[in-house]
Amino acid sequence: MVNICCIGAGYVGGPSSAVIAYKCHDINVTIVDLNQARIDAWNSDNLPIYEPGLDEVVFARRGKNLFFSTNVDQAIIDADLIFVSVNTPTKKTGMGAGMAADLAYIETATRRIAQVATTPKIVIEKSTVPCRTAQSMRTILEANSTSNVRFDILSNPEFLAEGTAISDLTNPDRVLIGCLQTPEGFAAQQKLVDVYSRWIPKERVITMNLWSSELSKLAANALLAQRISSINALSAICEATGADVDEVAYACGTDSRIGPKFLKASVGFGGSCFQKDILNLVYLSEQLYLPEVAAYWKSVVTMNEYQKQRFTHRIVRTLFNTVTHKRIALLGFAFKKDTGDTRESAAITLSSYLVQERAHVAIYDPKVSAKQIKLDLTEPGVGTNEAEVEKHVEICNSAYEACAGAAALVIVTEWDEFKMAQLDYQKIYDSMQKPAFIFDGRLILDAPKLREIGFRVETIGKSI
Ligand code: NAI
Question: Any idea which positions bind substrate (predicted)?
């Protein structure tokens, strides 16, 4: 029986390790975390993250070959393979603040492995890290090992997207496994290939050197975010010229060299990864004395900030240049549909801007709790404090409740339940102040139909 330990029971560690247990009943998987509340939730009926299909996977294997625990040391001692899936947020202070990845969590987890391991371990970098982090992990492991045990390090970056994590994990485009190009490195790599090959076709399990694997993760996220910023930049031109961004995206996306994915204009990308990973790449480029490369990738993030700001300005301008005391309904707070994750969500920037303009912001999201929304809006640096949030923000239990009496409705997250087929927009119109405005930040509504009802509609990337 192979024993796997995963350090970090978050959006990546939880689902990715649970899927290994689900697919390989003869492998024992223990997911550990220092956060007791998170582990308690993983062991309850109410899992700490919302992800379609996740409950089914966890409930099928929990207590059989899938375990959640805070006993990090024991799980390390028992494991043959150890995934390190801890968070790597952008550094907030010190050298590289605002750009470099904070590797403190990686370092703490690595030191723990070195201190408690008594048998050889394969340590797998699952977290997204700057290129050559494996080298630092190796140095830490070798310098701190108490029993002189052998450690092999692999890079196995995760490509799952929140909202589709389970299908991404069960049927991935590819799995990357990087290793040192030594006989021991190849042997360790083969052990992990053997695990994934149980359910993933061999040709999709790609092996390469450690540094290529580490850089490929940053590169993939940078390229994806770049597409969004590119279409968002074009959306500004559309609004100014009468071109329609949906038509432009369709025209470009049907070119087989370009392809249709990630060409949806929006209020801006969010999520815990895109911005952080691009800034990470920017920092890496600066460290390598490549300022032009750094500036090139930085512009992807700059464009995203511009898009969020442009959209909020459009709201204020359209509402006769003032939103003071006006009720504005924000539909959606998660950074995208089918997840409760709000990290870097465009909704945070939007809400904070509207609160600063002294609007009354009524927020509804199907999966984000009131507590989380308030936490996000009072984080340092967001621009709104507790007193302002108490006074100007109202968390609602339905879209209808948020829209009742509102001057404007803003689609921030593309949840299916906000689409025309699911919400009664006539009922919403009847309950709103007149003129009733809709701002579609996700291009999910049928503007002509809404205009027939009587709404004034403003859509990203369209001038009418
Ligand atoms: P997360 O913040 O949801 O989870 C990380 C967990 O690690 C937390 O629960 C934390 O308590 C735990 N942790 C930190 N230090 C620890 C330690 N020393 N011992 C035990 N537990 C510890 O983060 P998330 O979203 O799961 O991301 C993890 C990594 O995966 C990051 O590097 C991220 O960039 C990467 N990634 C994230 C994706 C996403 O969609 N969220 C997708 C692909 C990669």
Answer: 158-162, 217-221, 257, 264-270, 335-336, 442
Q: How far apart are CA 7 and CA 79, in angstroms?
A: 11
Query: Which tens digits make up the pLDDT trace of 413-424?
Result: 999 999 999 999
Share of the chain above pLDDT 90, in %: 97
Give me the helix-helix angle, 210-241 and 291-318, nearest 10°: 40
Active site amino acids: 273
Angle subtended at Cα 132 by Cα 130 and Cα 136, rounded to the nearest 5 degrees: 105
Residue 157 CA: nearest ligand 1 atom is 44
pLDDT of 122: 98
Q: Angle between the 274-287 and 210-241 helix axes, to the nearest 10 degrees?
A: 120
The residue contributing the CA closest to ligand 1 atom 32 is: 127
Measured from the CA of 129, which atom of ligand 1 is nearest?
32
pLDDT of res. 464: 74
CB distance 102 to ligand 1 below 6 Å = no
Say whether pTM exceeds 0.85: yes
Do residues 193 and 177 touch, judged by C-beta distance below 8 A?
Answer: yes
Look at ligand 1, atom 38, and give the residue with the nearest C-alpha: 12
List pLDDT tens digits, range 121-169: 999 999 999 999 999 999 999 999 888 899 999 999 999 999 999 999 9
90 a known binding residue? yes
Where does 242-290 have alpha helices with state H? 245-253, 274-287
Task: Determine the distance separating the centroid of ligand 1 and the alpha carbon of 10, expressed in angstroms.
Answer: 5
What pLDDT score was predicted for residue 148? 83
Span from the CA of 85 to the centroid of ligand 1 (angstroms): 5
In this predicted structure, what is the pLDDT of residue 146?
Answer: 82
310 and 245 Cβ atoms separated by less than 8 Å = no
